[in-house]
TrEMBL record:
Residues 238-260 form the EF-hand domain. This is EF-hand domain-containing protein. It comes from Myxococcus landrumensis. Signal peptide: none annotated.
């Protein structure tokens, strides 16, 4: 060993010394659950959730040697052959077994506390999940494990720190309410406030995909998110070179790894929050890790794929130029190889070191003309280098981009489109009906004014009729030619879906716009109440005045029309008041349906039918 290498080893040892001391004072408990089946949701069976559970078991026995590790999964035939040791330890992923595992860990942690030792818990899940009535749940072999059950289990285990890593659909809602402040979506601010009150010592790293599938890749034989998490924990996510991996580093690594994937549906929408809201807390301290290490530090970017002897992919790393990473190699990888992926798509394969080794010291085994999986749509995973610069870019992007939102699924987006379509049609129909009524009323008022002038009635009344006629004709024309705010929201929503903007943000923005419309319509309803009361009072006063006017009007068409004006005003005012008090607006109905999660329903609608014997009938149907 030369002097330079010795100095580097000494420096690295000094960095790890505090972590080694910290590691001696805590015992780690690891509970891993992987479930391919979908007993509750009836979704297609996953292929690799059991593989993820087996790999997590292998990895954590390296990252936390001596830890108490339990794995709940049912290995399929192929996975059982790849992981014979895990097969012997694996337990069924049932509700009863999971509850028993949490209770067992709680007893052990309390015993540690009595002995003056601290404890740390890891709970990892891979499989199906969803959200119902504002509560998330994970699918086990025999039913749903709800967010309330998880929160209760975590609250009963008195650990100093707990880390929850979930790779499932809608995983955000396993630890966060769906509708903070009445909204269907949630933001990191909502989460920080909620978790700070309820689970202060719990950190979470979540794949917040809200789609109907947990995205897996056959080349990885794993879920995309879970593979990236394991790669990062094994050293690839150490962005600052301190030998440990924090929440922020792992989140940045997963985001960077999927950055070049073109299809946004395949990119994990990662949510990370460390215990007490501190993302600098370490998910894994390198001081507790034992086993072989591959030291990678080159003057140019280095992209590596680490496989075991069976060709199974374990680690993906793409370090920046000049950035040094130390990849931890589980025992299962021994005898495997590491591929260095070159810029032209080819790769060079090396044998892995038995203990410690640097990339530059490895002996080349063969040259592969094309990297494995290069034709796969997800081949751009890990295409972007990670290191201090990528970590800084991640921090800058978080500060510059809009606050992300969570909990909006593709199904939610479709529901929003259906509801907005209903709102647009209803308001368009109402606008046309109102326009036609205003034009009809304007024509009638104009005719009344003309007849009143011709009959020699009061000129003031005649000109009032003509003025009202002009206003109604103008308002009717405006109603027919303009568009309502609901129609505009629908059009903007359709246009936004055609862009590259995050669809969850589009839905959240639209929801806030609907709330704004509902507030405006509430104010309009109050104004309509005042208007109705004024028109009703005016009609009553006009009726009385017409009967008591001195000298009396001559008995002609003008007087007859003037006598009708008062009752007409009273009818109009009464209809305004009934409308204001009894009917909710279409936007409010749509917002209620959206917030409640119920299926779209018909909002109140107005219709006009011509009667065979003459005249017309106006009707309104819907829920009030």
């Amino acid at each position: 060993m030369n002097l330079s290498t010795a100095m580097k080893s000494l420096t690295y040892t000094l960095l790890l010394l505090p972590m080694l001391c910290w590691a001696e004072t805590r015992e780690r408990f690891v509970l891993i659950v992987g479930n391919n089946a979908s007993a509750t949701l009836g979704r297609p069976r996953l292929q690799f959730a059991d593989d993820d559970a087996a790999k997590y078991d292998t990895v954590f026995r390296v990252l936390a040697p001596g830890a108490y590790v339990r794995v709940l999964t049912e290995l399929d035939k192929d996975t059982a052959r790849l992981f014979p040791e895990v097969r012997q330890r694996a337990e069924p992923p049932t509700l009863a077994r999971l509850q028993e595992a949490f209770e067992d860990i709680s007893r052990r942690v309390r015993e540690n506390t009595r002995q003056g030792r601290e404890s740390e818990l890891y709970f990892l899940f891979a499989g199906h999940g969803d959200v119902e009535q504002g509560k998330g749940f994970l699918e086990l072999a025999d039913g749903a494990f709800t967010s309330d059950a998880l929160e209760e289990a975590l609250s009963k285990i008195p650990v100093q720190r707990a880390h929850v890593v979930l790779d499932s659909c809608n995983s955000f809602f396993m630890l966060n309410p769906r509708k903070p402040g009445g909204r269907r979506y949630a933001t990191p601010v909502d989460s920080a406030e909620a978790m700070g009150r309820r689970l202060q010592n719990v950190g979470v790293l979540l794949s917040t995909s809200a789609e109907a599938e947990v995205y897996e890749w056959s080349e990885l034989q794993s879920g995309i998110f879970s593979h990236a998490v394991r790669s990062g924990l094994l050293g690839a996510a150490d962005g600052d070179g301190d030998g440990a991996v924090s929440y922020e580093e792992l989140a940045a690594f997963v985001e960077t790894a999927s950055h070049e994937v073109k299809n946004p549906a395949f990119r994990p929408h990662v949510f990370a929050r460390g215990p007490s809201g501190d993302n600098q807390v370490h998910l894994m301290e390198s001081g507790v890790v034992t086993g072989a290490v591959l030291d990678v530090g080159e003057t140019e970017p280095v992209r590596l794929v680490v496989r075991d002897a069976e060709g199974l992919r374990w680690i993906d790393s793409h370090s920046e130029a000049g950035h040094r990473v130390h990849l931890r190699l589980p025992q299962a990888i021994r005898g495997g190889s590491v591929e260095r992926v070159l810029a032209d798509g080819s790769s060079e394969r090396f044998g892995l070191p038995a203990e410690q080794g640097t990339l530059s010291s490895l002996v080349s085994v063969e040259r592969v003309l094309e990297a494995r999986g290069i034709t796969d749509p997800l081949r751009m995973l890990f295409a972007q280098p990670f290191g201090p610069r990528a970590l800084a870019d991640f921090r800058g992007a978080q500060a510059a981009t809009p606050t992300p939102v969570y909990g909006i699924s593709r199904e939610d987006g479709d529901r929003m489109g259906l509801l907005l379509g209903q709102l647009g049609r209803q308001q368009r129909q109402s606008r046309h009906v109102e326009g036609a009524l205003r034009l009809t009323g304007g024509a009638a008022m104009g005719l009344a004014g003309g007849l009143n002038l011709r009959a020699g009635g009061y000129k003031a009344a005649s000109w009032s009729y003509l003025g009202a006629s002009a206003l109604l004709l103008g308002a009717g024309t405006w109603s027919l030619l303009s568009s309502t705010e609901g129609e505009e929201v629908e059009a903007e929503y359709r246009r936004a879906l055609l862009t590259q903007e995050d669809h969850a943000l589009v839905v959240a923005r639209t929801e806030e716009r609907l709330r704004s419309i509902a507030v405006t319509e509430e104010r309009n309803r109050f104004a309509l109440k005042l208007t109705g009361a004024f028109v009703l009072a005016t009609g009553a006063a006009l009726t009385v005045w017409m009967e008591d006017v001195k000298p009396p009007l001559p008995e002609n068409y003008g007087r007859a029309l003037n006598r009708l004006a008062g009752p007409a005003f009273m009818i109009a005012g009464t209809s305004f008041l009934l409308d204001a008090f009894l009917q909710r607006s279409p936007a409010e109905h749509v917002l209620e349906a959206w917030s409640s999660g119920r299926a779209p329903r018909e909002v109140p609608r107005m219709s006009i039918s011509l009667l065979p014997e003459g005249g017309a009938m106006m009707g309104m149907s819907g829920q009030f």
